[in-house]
């Protein structure tokens, strides 16, 4: 009788739920603490947006979770094992804010270089060339690529092997709007069954992609919550009319939008119903302020 | 049935590092090899005794220059964040340094093989007899001194590069590396010269001075590699960008 069980893809991540546990972590560079007493637990697949001003410690957090920096105090555990163990590293993909592309290589050679480090194969290289739409760049030397093209190649590296935790430090920086949108799509796709930690300076992008937010200020975690639980200090509803020349008496105007300040999102449905009842044809209705902006106020 | 993935060390990247080092240092490799070949052939076709007494002594100076390729790649990888990625995969700083060091030794081997082949070929083609002194000087001085000097300039150069802020040009570790590489052979020859002028140089004295110099430099290189975890913090290998 055959003892073979269900086939397991060689590139599949190890079994067990993806989890990140950060307990009282202090970390930094050359004796200078950047992260101070950071604690959080992540165990559910989703996109977790890491926000904070420049120099707040976002990159240091990513480097510490990736096992590049060792915590001076506290503990990082990935999937239940210490973060600097190979078993923990094998569960994670880390995308630095730097491209990390080896000079003197063509795009295909660079991906093959990382495929080797990842124990992936040539087939995986070919797959990501198509996935990130960089096949036409495959024989070009990295030095000849634009910043955006390099970023795409760098992101392609992340898809060489399947992991269950993705640490993405500013993945859409330097990308054109079309490519940035595609990357956001890929990140959302990943987050169905994987943990994605993602940093960005674009609050609208963060709100579009993120489900949870971690805010770091002065090296401390000041907020960890679902984005939907965040409220703007004011809630402004903006509507755009189908007839651009029409007006909406009693509403303020900002560009193409007519604005009204409300107490909260629960006030939106009755107002929209009222507008429709009055026969006003709406093209768009949206919340004008991003609750994430409050974090930087 | 496949169980949980076993804990495995990251794949070796020695092969790609060697190829990149050769590619990056190809000009200096070509120039270094070219000069040694020209020098070897020119002296080899002339006086046999001049060849035996001078060719093995200049070989390490050109040989150690071949280490520049891997040092260039190391410095570039640090600045561009490649080392950061490799550390995220689990590659230790010691393994990083060892890989670049081996790549450097491979480049040195290329210069030595071509230069010795051309030089000794010219020496023999000129009708000079095979010489025991030549074999002793090549095997006992030129080859080990080339490798040890190259290892010294690569290792000290990598430390220097990691400990300093990224910069380019002649003041950078890459720019200064050739001078680091010629330090051991020049110091050894200077010591031999001093001994020769005071007590007179013998084969035993030559072997003693050379052996001591090789031993001291090797110990320095091995210490820098073995104790890297204490001597060099991991964050030194991260780009400051």
- The overall average pLDDT of chain A, rounded, is 87
- Radius of gyration of CA atoms of chain A, rounded to a whole number: 23 Å
Quaternary state, please?
A: heterodimer
CA-to-CA gap between the ends of chain A?
A: 67 Å
Order of helices and strands of chain B: HHHHHHHHHHH
| Proportion in β-strands of chain A | 25-35%
Helix content of chain A: 25-40%
What is the residue-mean pLDDT of chain B, rounded to a whole number? 84
From the 3D structure, determine the CATH topology of the largest domain in chain A. Answer: Rossmann fold
Q: How big is the Rg of chain B?
A: 20 Å
Low-pLDDT residue intervals, each spanning 5 or more residues of chain A: 1-9
Return the domain count of chain A: 3
End-to-end gap of chain B: 46 Å
Provide the CATH top-level class of the largest domain in chain A: Alpha Beta
Strand content of chain B: under 5%
Number of helices of chain A: 8
Biggest sheet strand line-up of chain A: 6-7-8-3-9-10
| Strand elements of chain B, count | 0
Largest sheet of chain B: none
The backbone outline of chain B, from C-alpha atoms, is: globular
How would you characterize the overall build of this protein?
The complex is a heterodimer of chains A (297) and B (241). Helix content of chain A is 26%, strand content 28%. With 297 residues, chain A is of the alpha/beta class. Chain A folds into 3 domains: 15-91 and 164-174 and 191-230, Rossmann fold, CATH 3.40.50; 100-162; 235-296, no CATH class. In chain A, the strands form 3 sheets. Chain A has a 6-stranded mixed β-sheet, sandwiched between helices. A 4-stranded antiparallel β-sheet of chain A has the order 2-1-4-5. Chain A has a 4-stranded antiparallel β-sheet with strand order 12-13-11-14, covered by helices on one side. In chain A, helix 3 packs across helix 4. Chain A is globular, with a radius of gyration of 23 Å. Chain B is mainly alpha-helical and 241 residues long. Chain B has one domain. Chain B contains 11 helices and no strands. Chain B is globular, with a radius of gyration of 20 Å. The chains are: A alpha/beta (297), B mainly alpha (241). Chains A and B meet through helix 2 and helix 3 of A and helix 1, helix 4 and helix 5 of B.
């Amino acid at each position: 009788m055959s003892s073979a069980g269900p086939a397991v893809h060689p590139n599949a991540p190890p079994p067990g739920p993806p989890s990140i546990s950060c307990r009282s972590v202090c970390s930094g560079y050359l004796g200078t603490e950047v992260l101070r007493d950071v604690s959080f637990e992540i165990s559910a697949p989703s996109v977790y947006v890491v926000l904070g001003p420049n120099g707040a410690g976002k990159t240091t957090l990513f480097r510490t979770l990736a096992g590049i920096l060792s915590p001076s105090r506290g503990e990082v555990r990935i999937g239940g094992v210490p973060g600097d163990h190979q078993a923990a590293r094998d569960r994670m993909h880390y995308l630095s804010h730097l491209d990390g592309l080896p000079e003197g290589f063509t795009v295909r050679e660079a991906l093959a270089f990382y495929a080797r480090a990842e124990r992936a194969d040539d087939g995986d290289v070919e797959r990501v060339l198509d996935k990130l739409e960089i096949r036409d760049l495959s024989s070009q030397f990295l030095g000849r690529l634009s910043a955006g093209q390099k970023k795409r190649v760098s992101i392609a590296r992340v898809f060489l092997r399947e992991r269950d935790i993705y640490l993405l430090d500013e993945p859409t920086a330097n990308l054109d709007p079309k490519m940035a949108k595609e990357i956001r799509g890929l990140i959302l796709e990943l987050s169905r069954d994987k943990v994605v930690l993602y940093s960005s300076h674009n609050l609208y992008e963060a709100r579009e992609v993120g489900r949870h937010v971690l805010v770091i200020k002065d090296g401390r975690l000041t907020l960890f919550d679902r984005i939907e639980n965040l409220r703007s200090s004011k809630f402004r509803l903006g509507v755009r009319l189908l007839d651009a020349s029409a007006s909406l008496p009693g509403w303020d105007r900002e560009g193409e939008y007519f604005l009204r300040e409300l107490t909260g999102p629960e006030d939106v449905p009755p107002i929209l119903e009222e507008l429709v009842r009055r026969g006003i044809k709406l093209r768009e209705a949206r919340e004008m302020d991003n609750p994430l902006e409050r974090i930087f106020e | 049935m496949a169980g949980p993935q076993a804990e495995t060390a990251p794949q070796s990247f020695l092969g790609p590092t060697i190829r990149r080092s050769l590619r990056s240092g190809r000009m200096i490799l070509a120039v270094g090899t070219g000069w040694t070949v020209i020098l070897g052939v020119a002296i080899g076709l002339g006086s046999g005794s001049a060849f035996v007494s001078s060719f093995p002594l200049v070989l390490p100076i050109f040989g150690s220059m071949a280490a520049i390729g891997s040092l260039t790649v190391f410095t570039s990888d640090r600045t561009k964040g490649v080392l950061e990625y490799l550390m995220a995969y689990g590659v230790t700083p010691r393994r990083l340094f060892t890989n670049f060091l081996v790549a450097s030794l491979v480049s040195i081997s290329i210069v030595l093989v071509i230069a010795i082949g051309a030089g000794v070929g010219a020496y023999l083609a000129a009708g000079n007899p095979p010489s025991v002194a030549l074999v002793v000087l090549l095997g006992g001085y030129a080859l080990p001194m080339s490798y040890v000097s190259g290892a010294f300039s690569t290792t000290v150069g990598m430390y220097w590069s990691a400990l300093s802020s990224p910069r380019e040009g002649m003041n950078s570790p890459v720019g200064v590396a050739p001078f680091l590489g010629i330090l051991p052979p020049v110091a050894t020859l200077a010591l031999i010269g001093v001994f020769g002028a005071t007590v007179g140089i013998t084969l035993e004295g030559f072997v003693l001075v050379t052996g001591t110099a090789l031993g001291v430099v090797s110990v320095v290189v091995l210490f820098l590699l073995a104790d890297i975890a204490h001597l060099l913090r991991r964050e030194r290998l991260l780009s400051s960008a």
